[in-house]
Amino acid sequence: MKHRGRRFRSARTLAAQAGVGTDRSYGAVSAPIYLSAMYHYEAFGKHRGFDYSRAANPTRSALEEVLAELEQGTRAVAFASGMAAVSAALGLFGPGDRILCSDDLYGGNYRLFEQVLRPLGLVFDYIDMGDCARIEAAVRAGTKALFIETPTNPLMKIADLRGAAKVAKRHGLLTLVDNTFMSPALQRPISLGADLVIQSATKFLGGHNDLIGGAVIAADAKLGERLLFIQKAVGAVPGAFDCWLLLRGIKTLHVRVERAQDTAGMLAEFLAEHALVSRVFYPGLQGHPRRELHLAQADGPGSIISFELRNAAAVPTFLGALRTILLAESLGGVESLITHPSSMTHADIPAKEQAAVGLTSRLVRLSVGIEDAHDLRRDLEQALRATSRSRGRKNA
User: Fold this and answer.
1) CATH 3.40.640.10 domain span(s) along the chain
2) Which of 18, 53, 247, 346 could share a disulfide with 66, CB 3.0–4.6 Å?
């Protein structure tokens, strides 16, 4: 990998030195924060590479360079949120175009697709992206792209990235992959044939639950230029300080992801054996559907665990009893977070559609952070015990 004229051996080194070398004036190790909306022209028609920060900002450019290299793309375009990034990527399509999507989709994406973009003329079809024969059969006149989550949010379904990209290429489609759950630390879809990778940078890239951001990374330079034009035209750009926070977060991306993943594996095994848990969704567990496929296209199972309690009525008690793990709508940060998808992150998906993909009110999603693993296990244990005590009082 090349970065500012240097060749690094690994993505870990690239991430750790994110932004290094961007300050040509003083050699600051930490990339400077350019809090300027506009830039002074040297003369009529001549500037120093930047004129207005909606179009480009030096801090944002440093961030975009690192993101492109981490995802092995030619161009990264940063946005003010993950949803702004998804919106920009879908801005490549127009009325009458059909998009084939993963059938277990993040609720925010579903809301954007069905309530904003479908009324504007785009059409969305939902299928299992792990079955290439089904993808092939679902392509029809007007189909322009595949939109893939893998693992999916929140049921951790695995898509076949290589196979899906091959189907897409045979039919002249673009392959868009939301890589938020894995981050480039664990999965690099462009290397597997994807055309665009989308990140909610709020999550693992930032890693500290202190910013909102997003990015789209293009495999092809021309596609990257089209996205850059959309970024400039729409203006949903992150501020310089958020870009700096992202650069700082990326420096510890791999150590955070690896630590959280180690803990997640232990917690997933604990939950899988617990009498009050009926099912655990985690690609690291033996028996998880398409586990081998996932591990063939990613460097690990990640740190997101979804699991179902045996009794739906116990969910509020369980969530309310947690003391270390925080009830909140996000993932990928240093703090462990838990959410109830059917009523929180996926609430805009109709109940019928939730049921169709297997999302139940008994399911919770845990994003494992970097806290002490035994503290997290003890917290889950005592919260599960609280559900038993609550049920016992009701039965009495």
Assistant:
1) 2-251
2) 18
Q: Which helix (H) or strand (E) holds 394?
A: helix 373-395
Summarize pLDDT for 162-178 with one digit per residue, the tens: 999 999 999 999 999 99
Coil vs helix vs strand at 187: coil
Closest by alpha carbon to 372, among 335, 318, 343? 335
CATH of 253-395, one of 3.90.1150.10, 1.10.132.60, 3.30.950.10, 3.30.450.20: 3.90.1150.10
Q: Which stretches within 50-202 are classed as H helix?
A: 58-70, 82-90, 107-111, 132-138, 161-170, 183-186
CA distance 194 to 251: 25
The H-or-E segment that residue 69 falls in is: helix 58-70
> Which residues are annotated as catalytic?
54, 106, 178, 203
119 secondary structure, DSSP code: G
Q: How far is CA 47 from CA 54, 59, 135, in A?
A: 15, 17, 49
What is the per-residue DSSP string for 295-337? HHHSSS--SEEEEEES-GGGHHHHHHH-SSSEE-S--SSSS-E
